[in-house]
Fold this protein.
Amino acid sequence: MSRRPDPIYLDHHATTPLDERVLEAMLPWLRESFGNAASQTHVYGWRAAAAVDSARERIAEGLGARDPSEIVFTSGATESNNLALLGLADADRGRRPVVTAVTEHPSVLDPCRALARRGHPVEFLEVDPLGRVDPAAVAERLQAETLVVSIMAANNEIGVVQPIREIAALCAERGVPFHTDAAQAVGRIDLGAARDGIDLLSVSAHKLYGPKGVGCLVVRKTGRPRLRLEPRQYGGGHEGGLRSGTLPVAAIVGFARALELCLAERAAEAGRLRGLRTALFDRLCQALPGRVLLNGDPEARLPGNLNVSFAGVDGDRLLADLSGIAVSSGSACSSALPEPSPVLLALGRTTAQAKASLRFGLGRGTTPQHVDVAVASVLEAVARQAPAA
Ligand SMILES: *Cc1c(COP(=O)(O)O)cnc(C)c1O
């Protein structure tokens, strides 16, 4: 039986393929070097512990942390976000206020909603029509007793890069902890935990060509305000007691290698992706004059992100009519639901505009030929629909 070739992958915000060089680095730790890094009585354990130590140092360096001990390995950014927000709240036991934004990832919004149900006043800041959080709006909501401000570094749908350095500085002035979900930002934009004043930083390896199921939370250890986190998971006291559970050594080794590669290639790759992204957008605009609406800030956005709405297009049919490319509409997490993307609605898009949108996530494997295919696919899908009045 013949099978149609797989569509071209243009969904790098959902996940990225494992880099071959990362897989190579991981393999020994899946085969002969299978020890438990917590075993202190034999060489299997020592070897695994040394690999984790080395990975921790390289990840700390890559993320601009002050010390390797600030890295807490987790299963990914979802867990890191939950640990940061609920961990702070559980250690405090008060009902201190929380500030976040409406365009955050569900793994930030949902813990914040849980805190609201527990009696914390939670401010979900609106964004401007380009998707940006206004630092002045954060400043207005800040109080000395604010538990945490959580604003993502870069958005997973519209790629908008938030002014986190300014927001972090405002938080520091008031002595309020600042958390950022940097799952999309790490390896794609210039970022440094200590340099940028980030107290808590969430990272996921599978967004940077590493393995799925691993990530970290950077937790600042020195300086003010002092951070106290209650673990979400108790047990053997791994990760300084903050996250018990046997460490996935191979995944951690892969995470470190993936991050190094991303950082080494970041500048060149950003330029290349920006070129491809601009070509894709320009060609769609030329082919469909006046019908392509850019979602999110044209400048402050991830180099590989393009999110557009098509005027006069039935959003419910758009994805079904697209062949040849793998993209998403709205957020991948909610794309099974017929709901329009809350992020696009927050920009002021109508329900129809939000539904008739596509998120292109260009990445390491994307070529100019892929852009050709993407343009052709979109034009074909649009042509298949009744022409707009
Ligand atoms: C992918 C993503 C997450 C979730 O990360 P996992 O490691 O898959 O749990 C959180 N936030 C953002 C912005 C993301 O893009």
Remarks:
- The chain has two domains: 8-15+266-385, 20-260.
- The domain at 20-260 is CATH 3.40.640.10 (Aspartate Aminotransferase; domain 2).
